[in-house]
Structure formats: structure tokens, C-alpha cells
Design goal:
The complex is a heterodimer of chains A (566) and B (373). In chain A, 39% of the residues lie in helices and 14% in strands. Chain A is an alpha+beta fold and 566 residues long. The radius of gyration of chain B is 22 Å and the shape is globular. The chains are: A alpha+beta (566), B alpha/beta (373).
Chain lengths: 566, 373
């Protein structure tokens, strides 16, 4: 049986390798492997829990902010801290723009080239491109002049004979189906999105000092002061700038991203029957109301594609297996461990590099295998939107029905590579429309004279109990993210993160159940084994983030080497 | 090395300036860009024409970007770059032949691009490294295409004209190298001692500093002058504290005591909240982030010291100087350290007295606690 290997999978975050067996032009079986390990959670042990947000944020610079949010929520849960409304609303805005920006970058810069053949754009007629664009959107830049200018630039670039990042791709592959005009339109928007993303994310710079890796998170609140009478705090000028940038974000999603998504998807409807995956979906819910704490996106699970009901969540049902991962449990072989009891030591048993193939019958990845109630789960925008849709969340229902209606497909089409990509767009649209409302709520709260941003009463570790445990959940752009912490004598005793891409990139578990990437690839057609474009389509539809996915905890209480205090 | 060596294949008429022109960047904007970058390099304004002249001539040099034990944060910083924009940088100024996060090709086609560039432009391409390099387990803690990060670093950095280590991980090992350093992570210079390396630490590095280094290289045909930690002096020659907009409040003894208090809202000094600005060399206060919108101290959080070599093991976020493990050993770039540590302690004692005069009970209590630590 011939195995093909795609390593590196590019246009993702991190280091991912896919090995697949082909039979009759289709994938018979597949294995997902992460090939990079750092061990950050082990490094966290013994440090100040108030610092954990800063460390865990470095799990990933693409998913920047998300681990900070999960981390401060976990510590706040352990210490029973309730954050002031301003801090909660500022966090909601940070989360919101992160989601919108991340999804747009994913669509144009990480995923689009799986569907868009840039070389074909050279053959497009700019006038026809403009009329195609005008038929789907009133975006002001969609003029024949603009498309012609983009095409000229592209020609000049190709004319240098040095294609840089676009060299040696699968251009001309038979699986590319778009007409030249659609390719030119998408290429123009690829460039526009590059400009747009750096503008709208300035909201993070205002509220968080910089992006990536904002630096105003605090256990108990935020460190960005609020005071309309100060130039050193969040004042009217800064709030109005955020308002303008949120409008810019929403405008681009409504007039460029969604129309492009629908236009491109209409040429690839066969992908609504490919790449379904495990059929179980998990969403933790997101956007807490600053007063009640109720979540705007509802939490829940859907099992076996049964969209008649959403199951309530129980955090005790989350476990992780390491039977096919390069770790060793002391006496839990073949068992899954809950994150609070998580214990593992990295133990590499794979081939010595350089190698050609991994031994996929044994251990083959740095990613563990998380399971909910013993089942592999898909997480991400599709899970989030499905759970919300089935739970009767009215905004989600309206957006899903609109997109499915325009594509002329039913809800079953969501269980696919195309559905996953469409759900991400729907998610971006929902969040882009909702985030300005969190800003309005923040402005209204400040107008009442409430300037509080931090709950100080538990800031000093001397006030903490001798032992405390907590967990923090966050519905990140890539899905359900959970951090679990145990605090002992004011220090981190055990820290464990179960991350969206850990769920999705999961290898097999003790029972041999495949993870979501692996399941989704089975049955995928591959027209040219030496150019596996179809593998990229399905894998990219999950928006992988591998640096996030890999981690290890040491719960054995070993004394770590500490730096000497001078 | 000679700048023209970096030209690669001569394509008449496709200089950086010409490419920018092709893409609709006006001559005026181009000269403005040259002035901006000249300022970022801490060079006098009179140097701007020299920069412009150089960019008029130089061809697009090939650049390969390697990601090892990284989080992609420096790549994301690159995507936020404004002068030039990432589009200009990637499409016009450089030929970015390998960058896993943005390149269209994957798998063996991607690897072929890397092989082609390092063979065709041996000794002439620029290399950027993001993330640390794990030395334990024969390199198994980090592989791409079945090859260890270490093997790739030796191969690629070894025959580059210069390697730019972006971020604290690539510079010094960073977070993965923090105790107990499970994977034996190190920075590029330690992994490949023979390579020509410039360090741009920071978490992430400031994209403006990266651009400035690239332009410096294209303009002068060599790397800028470095400090003892391999950092360019133009960006790391001064302490955060030296240029901090809140410095007058430090000097006046006006400190934030609690998050969200009156002093915090007024923009007073964050020293007591754990700010590491007095011991950190970086140009954040002047260069700022995201097109100069802000930087940590301006947004009300102390500097954490992310650009310092031992940062991860010496900087609990909210413990204040000088009572921080490791502080006073090697925190200074050029032997200012110990004297300076004493200086901060001394300065603080004076300010403590000032605070006491302001009948600042909390502050006095804090001082006592510090003494006991």
C-alpha cells in the first residue's frame, strides 16, 4: 500500500504532517502528526498563577489572546474572583475582533489558494471581473480599473521570474474550478485583506498595547484604565476609534468576505459531500454578559450528527489519551485522564530524524488524544454554529439559513469541508455584528460613572487559600479551549490546557478511534498523488494551529530547577 | 560581503524601487518610506537619500524564513508591518522564497523551493529564524519534512549571507528554554555558532525593527552594529526607562499602587506594579507597536522585560525590581548592570521617602514587605 506524506503542511500555524494511504484515487486511511514539542506546561510549574496568562499566550501567536483569556478565567475560577463589568466588556471586544480578523486572514491568506488559482487570474478580463463583483456586492473598490491595476501588478511580479511565496504550488491542478474572473477578484481581495487586517487589529493595540500578544490582561480584570478625563486611559477619543475600526471590520466581512465565500463555494458544491469527519461537535459557549455571566453563544455538545438536540456539558467528561502520542502515563496505560489529574512525561519513541515515514501503528504524534465522554469531538466555528443553531440561538439560526439558502443546500451540507469553511464565515459575520454592541454597553457603563477595571481584593497571593483548583473555558476562533489549574501554596502545582487543535488534530486513542482530521480525510478524492491539493483543502478547513495543540504536564510534584535568587 | 552579491540574478530594471513603482507606490511615498526607515534605524535624516539611492539599485534579495519551536507570533508581527506593508515587503522588496505560514506550495514542493534558493544563492540569501532549536533527543522535539530543526538550521543558516533571529526564542531560546528546559532549546547563535546572526529579541519582535535591519543590510551591505547580546544598537541601545513617557512620574515619586486607582488612570509610573523598564533594553517607547498606536506601559501594564536574554526565568511579572531573581547578574547590555541596580534601589529609596511624605500608607507598607522578601 503506497503511503503519501505531506510535510510540511503549509499555510497553517505550526508543524503538521499528514501521512495517507490511497486506494482507487481516494484516501483509504490517514494519520495526523504534530512534529514539534516545547513542554510549556511543565515549565509553568512552580510559577506565579498571576503570570500564567502571559506564558500560555505564547502557546500561539496566531491565536494570540485566547490562552490569556482561558488562563485568567481559570485562575479567577480557582480564586472565586468576579471581574468588574468594564473588564468583562473589554475582554469581549478583544475576543470579538480577534475572531473576525483571524477568520478573514484564514480565508484569504491560509485557505483561499486551495480554491483560487492565481495564475489563472492573469487571463481574466478586468471589465467582466468588475461586473461579476458588482453582481454580488457594492464594495467600492470592485472597479474594472482596480482589477486591471491588480492584474498589471501580478503580471509585473510574474514577469520577474521570481514567484517568491507563490512558487511551485499546484497551479493548473484539475481540481481548480473557478473562472479567471473569480480568480482575479479573489486575488485582489487577498491583497486588500492584508491591508485591512493590520488596520482593524489596532483595536488590540488600543485595549491591549500591541498585537500579537497584547499585554493588558490581569487576573481579576484588565490593566487598561478607564477614565474619560484622562489622556492616559480609555477615553472618548479611543472609544470612538474602536467604533470606527469595528465598523470597518463589519463592512469588510459583509461586503467582501461573505460574498466571496458564497461565490467561490458555488463552484465547489461537490465539497459539501467530502470531509465530514467524526460527526461529534463540542462548543464551550462565549461572550459572557457582564452582569449575569450568561453566554451569548450557548455551550453544548452534538453527537453523531444528531441535530435534534444539544447535550449539556460536564467538564468532568473531558479526558486525554496518550496511547498513540509520544508521552508516557505512569499507570494509566490505555486509560484517559482528566486534566486535573493529567500526568505525562514526554517520551519520544519515533524514528530518529531524518526519517521518511512514521510508525503509525504505534506512537506517532506530539498531540494527545482528547475525548469527551470517550468520543472524539470536532471543535471550531462549525461546532459553535451548529450548537447555537440547534439550541435556537436566533442570530445564528438566521445567518445559517441565509447562507444555506443562497447556496441552495440543506443543513446536512454543513457536515463537510465546504460546510466547515462556510461556518467560519457565518461565525465571522455574527461576531462582527455583535462586537459593536459590547462596545456600546461599555460606553454606557462608563457614562454611568463606573470606571472599575480590576477586582483588587484577591490580588495579593497572601490572601489565597492553601490549595485551589479551577478551570477556564473560552470559545476561541478555532473552537473549544479549556485551561485547568491547580494552585498550591500560591504557586502553580499543575497546569493543563486542552486546546482546539488538540481536539481536531488528535491521533487515535486507546480504542483506535481516529481524530477529526484523520476521519475527515478518509474518502477524500486525490486526483494527483504527487499534488495532494485535496488534502490541503480538508485540513485547512479546520484552520490548524499546531503550536497550541502540543503540551505536556508534570503532575508528579517533582522539584524543578529554580533560578537562584541573588 | 558586497551588496551586489545579494542581487541574485540581475534582472535589468527590477530593482526594489522599480518594483514599488510598478505596484503604484509614488516616488514621493517611496522617499517618505526611506525617511521613515532611516529614522527607525536611528540614523540622521541626512542618510535618507543614501537609503533611497541604494534601494534604487538593489535587486530583490531572496529571503527564507524558518519556523522552529515557534508560536508564529513574529510572523504575525510581520503581517502587521506598515512601513513597508507586508504586501510590499513580500512581493516587491524581497523574494520570500520560503515561509511555511504564507507560502502556497506544501510538502515536498515547498521543500524543493528551499533547496533551490539555498543552492542557487549560496552565501547570498537572507535567512530569518523564528522559534528556538531543541538540542535533546537527537532533534526529535522539532522536525519538518522528517528533518530535525537543528539539521535544517545548520544547513540553511550556515550558508546564508546573514541570519536574523526574530523574537526572544530564536535569539536566546526563549520560553521553551525556561527552566527546566525540557527539550534543550537554544537560540540560533548557540545552535549554529559559525553563522552570522543578528538578534531581534522581544515577544514578539517589533516588525519595524526587522524591516529596518533588512533595509540597513540592503543599503550598507552589512549588518548594523550590535551590543554584547547580539542586538542592533539602533533598537536596543537604550533602556525602556530612558525613553519612557512616564519617566517624569518616576522622578517625581508618583506611582500606581493598585490597578485602576487614581494614579493608574492618570498615567503615573508602573514601577511598583512590577515594571521592568529600568532593566530592559528596547525601543518600545519610541517605536511603539501597530503603527505607533501604543506599547505596554502606555496601556497601563508594566514592561515585562521580554527582550532580555534570561527574561523567562528572571521576570515574575508583578514582582518589583530589584527584588527579582537574577536581577543584577547580567541584566545590562554593556556593563551598566550592577551600578545601575544599586542606582535603582537608591533612587527608589529616595522616592519611597517622597511617598512617605505624601502620607502614602500603602506605599510605606509595600516598602516594608519588600524589605522582608
Amino acid at each position: 500500500m503506497a503511503k503519501i506524506v505531506v510535510d510540511p503542511i503549509t499555510r497553517i500555524e505550526g508543524h503538521l504532517r499528514i501521512e495517507a494511504e490511497l486506494e482507487g484515487g481516494k484516501i483509504k486511511d490517514a494519520w495526523s502528526s504534530s512534529t514539534m514539542f516545547r513542554g510549556i506546561e511543565k515549565i509553568l510549574k512552580g510559577r506565579d498563577p498571576r503570570d500564567a496568562w502571559y506564558w500560555t499566550q505564547r502557546f500561539c501567536g496566531v491565536c494570540t489572546t485566547v490562552h490569556s483569556i482561558a488562563s485568567i478565567r481559570a485562575v479567577e475560577d480557582a480564586l472565586k474572583i468576579k471581574v468588574p463589568p468594564n473588564a468583562q466588556l473589554i475582554r469581549n471586544i478583544i475576543i470579538g475582533i480577534q475572531g473576525v480578523q483571524d477568520h478573514v486572514i484564514h480565508f484569504y491568506h491560509l485557505h483561499a489558494l486551495d480554491w483560487v488559482d492565481i495564475t489563472s487570474a492573469l487571463k481574466a478580463d478586468p471589465v467582466k471581473t468588475a461586473s461579476l463583483a458588482a453582481s454580488i456586492s457594492d464594495w467600492p473598490n470592485n472597479s474594472a480599473t482596480h482589477f486591471k491595476a491588480v492584474q498589471e501588478k501580478l503580471k509585473a511580479f510574474v514577469g520577474t521570474g521570481r514567484l517568491g511565496p507563490f512558487a511551485n504550488a499546484y497551479w493548473g491542478h484539475p481540481a481548480y474550478k473557478l473562472p479567471p474572473e473569480a480568480n482575479l477578484m479573489a486575488t485582489a481581495h487577498y491583497l486588500e485583506a492584508l491591508e485591512w487586517q493590520k488596520e482593524v487589529i489596532k483595536i488590540h493595540a488600543i485595549l491591549g498595547s500591541k498585537n500579537p500578544h497584547p499585554q493588558t490582561f490581569l487576573v481579576g480584570g484588565m490593566s487598561i484604565p478607564v477614565d474619560p478625563d484622562s489622556q492616559n486611559a480609555l477615553n472618548a477619543d479611543k472609544l470612538i476609534t474602536i467604533k470606527r475600526l469595528l465598523a470597518k471590520a463589519q463592512d469588510f466581512v459583509e461586503k467582501v468576505y461573505i460574498p466571496d465565500l458564497l461565490a467561490i463555494a458555488s463552484f465547489y458544491k461537490d465539497w459539501a459531500a467530502i470531509g465530514g469527519g467524526v460527526g461529534n461537535f463540542l462548543s464551550y459557549g462565549e461572550f459572557p454578559d457582564p452582569i449575569s455571566g450568561n453566554l451569548w453563544f450557548p455551550p453544548g455538545a452534538i453527537m453523531n450528527k444528531d441535530i435534534s438536540k444539544v447535550l449539556p456539558l460536564d467538564q468532568q467528561k473531558v479526558t486525554e489519551y496518550v496511547d498513540h502520542s509520544w508521552y508516557e502515563y505512569q499507570d494509566a496505560k490505555g486509560k484517559g485522564l482528566h486534566p486535573w489529574k493529567g500526568e505525562s512525561e514526554a517520551k519520544y519513541t519515533g524514528p530518529k530524524p531524518p526519517y521518511e515515514f512514521l510508525d503509525t501503528d504505534k506512537k506517532y504524534s506530539w498531540v494527545k488524544a482528547p475525548r469527551y465522554d470517550e468520543a472524539p469531538m470536532e471543535v471550531g466555528p462549525l461546532a459553535r454554529i451548529l450548537v447555537a443553531y440547534v439550541a435556537g440561538h436566533k442570530e445564528s439560526k438566521a445567518a445559517v439559513d441565509l447562507v444555506l439558502g443562497k447556496l441552495g443546500v440543506g443543513p446536512a451540507a454543513l457536515f463537510s469541508t465546504l460546510g466547515r469553511t462556510a461556518a467560519r464565515g457565518i461565525d465571522a459575520l455574527l461576531i462582527a455584528r455583535q462586537t459593536p454592541l459590547w462596545l456600546d454597553a461599555l460606553i454606557a457603563n462608563i457614562a454611568k460613572g463606573d470606571y472599575r477595571i480590576h477586582a483588587n481584593e484577591m490580588w495579593d497571593p497572601k490572601q489565597w487559600p492553601a490549595e485551589a483548583s479551577g478551570y477556564g473555558w473560552h470559545e476561541a476562533p478555532r473552537g473549544a479551549l479549556g485551561h485547568w489549574i491547580k494552585i498550591k501554596d500560591q504557586k502553580i502545582y499543575n497546569y493543563q490546557a486542552v486546546v482546539p487543535s488538540t481536539w481536531n488534530a488528535s491521533p487515535r486513542d486507546a480504542k483506535g478511534q481516529r481524530g477529526p482530521y484523520e476521519s475527515a480525510l478518509v474518502g477524500t478524492p486525490v486526483a494527483k498523488p504527487d499534488q495532494p491539493l485535496e488534502i490541503l483543502r480538508t485540513i485547512h478547513s479546520f484552520d490548524p494551529c499546531l503550536a497550541c495543540a502540543v503540551h505536556v504536564t508534570d503532575a508528579t510534584g517533582n522539584e524543578l530547577v529554580r533560578v537562584k535568587v541573588s | 560581503m558586497d551588496r551586489d552579491d545579494c542581487a541574485g540574478k540581475k534582472q535589468e530594471g527590477f530593482s526594489v524601487a522599480r518594483m514599488l513603482e510598478e505596484r503604484g507606490v509614488s516616488r514621493r511615498d517611496f522617499l517618505k518610506f526611506c525617511s521613515t526607515v532611516t529614522a527607525a534605524m536611528a540614523l540622521p535624516a541626512t542618510m535618507a537619500p543614501k537609503v533611497a539611492q541604494a534601494l534604487d539599485k538593489v535587486q530583490r534579495p531572496p529571503l527564507v524564513w524558518l519556523e522552529f519551536q515557534d508560536c508564529c507570533g513574529d510572523t504575525e508581527a510581520l503581517l502587521r508591518s506598515a512601513n513597508p506593508t507586508v504586501g510590499e515587503l513580500v512581493l516587491d522588496i524581497l523574494s520570500v522564497d520560503y515561509h511555511e505560514t504564507i507560502m502556497a506550495a506544501a510538502g515536498h514542493q515547498a521543500e524543493a523551493n528551499l533547496e533551490k534558493t539555498i543552492k542557487e544563492f549560496q552565501g547570498k540569501y537572507l535567512c530569518v529564524v523564528e522559534g528556538s532549536i531543541p538540542m535533546k533527543e537527537g532533534g526529535a522535539y522539532g522536525c519538518v519534512g522528517g528533518k530535525s530543526h537543528l539539521a535544517r538550521a545548520k544547513q540553511v543558516c550556515g550558508s546564508a549571507a546573514a541570519t536574523i533571529a526574530v523574537g526572544t526564542c530564536a535569539s536566546y531560546g526563549g520560553i521553551a528554554a525556561a527552566a527546566p528546559n525540557p527539550t534543550g532549546a537554544v537560540g540560533v547563535k548557540e545552535a549554529v555558532p559559525g553563522a552570522t546572526v543578528i538578534n531581534l529579541p522581544g515577544c514578539p519582535c517589533n516588525a519595524d525593527n526587522l524591516t529596518a535591519v533588512v533595509v540597513h543590510f540592503l543599503t550598507f551591505g552589512k549588518l548594523p552594529n550590535l551590543d554584547s547580546h547580539g542586538r542592533p544598537l539602533f533598537a536596543y541601545g537604550k533602556r525602556i526607562h530612558d525613553n519612557c513617557e512616564r519617566r517624569p512620574h518616576f522622578d517625581a515619586g508618583q506611582y500606581v499602587e493598585h490597578w485602576g486607582d487614581d494614579a493608574h488612570r492618570k498615567g503615573h509610573c508602573l514601577y511598583k506594579m512590577g515594571c521592568k523598564g529600568p532593566a530592559t533594553f528596547h525601543n518600545c517607547p519610541t517605536q511603539r507597536f501597530n503603527e505607533k498606536v501604543s506599547w505596554p506601559v502606555a496601556s497601563g501594564h508594566g514592561c515585562v522585560g521580554c527582550s532580555e536574554p534570561q527574561f523567562w526565568d528572571t521576570s515574575p511579572l508583578y514582582r518589583r525590581l530589584p527584588n527579582v531573581p537574577g536581577f543584577g547578574i547580567e541584566q545590562s547590555a554593556d556593563r551598566i548592570g550592577l551600578a545601575f541596580a544599586a542606582g535603582v534601589g537608591g533612587a527608589f529609596a529616595i522616592h519611597g521617602a517622597l511617598n512617605a511624605l505624601r502620607k502614602d500608607k500603602d506605599g510605606a507598607d509595600e516598602n516594608k514587605k519588600d524589605g522582608e522578601e
